[in-house]
Structure prediction request, 105 residues.
Amino acid sequence: MPSKYPCGNCDIGVRFSGIKCTGPCNKWYHAGCQNIKEKSLKKWTSQETENWQCITCRADQHLHLSQKIPDPISLNSSGTIEDLTNSLIENKYLENSKSEEDRLE
Prediction:
């Protein structure tokens, strides 16, 4: 008979030292299967356990959020490597020119 709460990692029933993911998967996990030490888990507050998400859900959430954040380079250029390279070369040239002017003064 299959377990009522199979671990989302190893598929073995979670009976002790388990924690439920509050992320999209909503699965139970053995603490050890999520790299959580049993002693550490026992010290968690109810708020920590009520808001805990498994490694997979956290990674998916991070990936989803990173897709929404605009790339700062694309905000400042037309997006080509050539434009970026030219901009960097121009900045370096201006820095060198300023240094040369300072030396001549």
About this structure: The chain has a mean pLDDT of 80. The longest helix spans residues 81-104.
